[in-house]
Write a structure and sequence with these properties.
327 residues; 10 helices; 10-stranded mixed beta sheet; alpha/beta
Length: 327
């Protein structure tokens, strides 16, 4: 079952890719009948949080005035983002101005609102292309309770989601099943082609970086043929599941090798505007995103990536995330 319609939370900070993220989120909200929420998180400069009584002598402190200037600037940027989205014909359900650590505030607000999707840009206002490790977007993907879309665009400033081709990476895992449902729903509602890829291990790669063959003997042609047939049956079964649920698969692709490299390469070959992946695979072990297939795809793909996890909100989950995020 798909998550749409839902509440979509997009984080903005005035950067070019945050602007692309906001317009991409607005378009998805329009096409899926979802509510669009926008959040801007500005840093706290002083030792006191809003709502904490500090007395008149502290209110006159330079840090307090700096905090007020930051808040006014943040509100102006937030209002400007809303005006741009509404000028393009979309609507914003609610805006949110928060102060603190950006990743922690975005994740916490997503849980407070019960969002089904969080959308973030792949880099912030510094304008520097950085590895995703340690960035706000990486932390949000790691800790959010719901699917997260990381948006980047071409140098011309166009969000590649507009290419109308969606590539779904699947392996039959629980996260991949939900990812398939979301991808199929998005493809249908945005009139996009849905491509599905399943990547099997090659003779020299087992999916975790170790050689598949440890002795001098190579697999026979018959063994390779059996493996191909087995993988093709798995891919066909996954396509059948998508179509049985009402989705339409434009084309299925069976590749061999490193999953992240094959997913990224195929996305470029077909000109995909969006890649949809599960956050974990058939192993069923919850791992940090860093170093995983989904993390590598987010880092290196030329287009937006939607990372899906099948996880419900449970008691105490927010507090644990806040602890990990240092809030």
């Amino acid at each position: 079952m798909s998550i749409f319609p839902t509440k979509i939370l997009v984080a903005t900070d005035g950067s070019r890719e945050a602007d692309l993220a906001a317009h991409t989120a607005a378009r998805i909200a329009d096409e899926t009948g979802s509510e669009l929420h926008i959040v801007y998180v500005y840093p706290e400069t002083g030792p006191h949080r809003p709502g904490y009584y500090v007395g008149p002598e502290v209110e006159e402190h330079p840090l307090q005035r700096e905090q007020e200037l930051l808040e006014r600037e943040a509100q102006l940027l937030l209002d400007t983002q809303v005006e741009e989205i509404e000028a393009a014909g979309s609507s914003v359900a609610q805006t949110h101005l928060r102060v603190g650590k950006a990743d922690g505030e975005i994740v916490a607000l997503g849980e407070e609102l019960g969002t089904g999707l969080i959308v973030v840009g792949s880099r912030g206002r510094s304008g520097l292309r950085r590895a995703l490790i340690g960035s706000v977007s990486d932390s949000v993907v790691r800790h959010a309770h719901c699917p997260v879309m990381v948006v980047r665009g071409e140098e011309n400033g166009e969000a590649l989601f507009s290419s109308k081709r969606i590539l779904l990476a699947t392996d039959g895992s629980k996260d991949a099943v939900l990812a398939a449902s979301i991808a199929a729903d998005l493809a249908q509602k945005s009139a996009s082609e849905l491509h599905v890829i399943h990547v099997g291990p090659s003779v020299d790669y087992d999916g975790v970086g170790e050689p598949l063959v440890t002795d001098i003997s190579a697999p026979t042609e018959e063994q390779i043929k059996e493996l191909d047939e087995e993988l093709q049956q798995l891919l066909d079964a996954q396509v059948e599941q998508i179509e049985a649920a009402g989705g339409t698969v434009w084309q299925a692709h069976l590749r061999m090798g490193r999953p992240d490299a094959q997913i990224i390469a195929l996305a470029e070959e077909i000109g995909a505007g969006l890649i949809v992946v599960g956050s974990r695979g058939l192993g069923g072990i919850r791992r940090a995103l860093m170093g995983s297939i989904s993390g590598s795809v987010v880092r290196h793909a030329h287009c937006p990536v939607l990372v899906v996890r099948k996880e419900g909100t449970v008691s105490g989950q927010v507090g644990e995330r806040e602890r990990r995020l240092g809030r």
